Amino acid sequence: MRKEPNSSPLQTVKDFLHHPSQDQLEITFSHLEIHNQQHGQWCKKVQRPQSRILLRKLPQNGLAEITVVDNLVFRFSFKFRIPISSEFNDLEMLCLPRPLDQGLLSMDDEKLQLTFRIDAPDPALHVQVTQVYQGILGLQRTFTPLYRSTRSINR
Length: 155
Prior knowledge:
Blueprint: E1 2-3, H1 9-17, E2 23-38, E3 41-57, E4 63-68, E5 76-81, E6 91-92, E7 100-107, E8 111-118, E9 127-143
Antiparallel strand pairs: 1-9, 2-3, 2-9, 3-4, 4-5, 6-7, 7-8, 8-9
């Protein structure tokens, strides 16, 4: 089901997470800006139009998951605790896949921001990444069952 977008990433996410649902919400942003930083120096800045994330509430009480669909290298997901207060600043990104770590999620009325580190055995090779999503273009709700059936269907 397609829904008219709210212009605020913060309000869109809060509205979705505070209603009981087994839906997944695909949010399409008009603009994604990715900044890479190494040794405190900005290395690279990439801009992408029409980038998406997927948001869903998890069956574990108080947890949600975001899947980053349009990343430079690979698609990845992380979990975060749904805040009780109205603040969505510096939420810890839980269960980041290796080599990603030290992630934070922040959002306000203008943007949704992800900050994380790409880890490496040599600390000199660590890269800090910031992804800033702005301008909601569209919202798409899809049903996602909490438990998937594992039985096979014989024909």
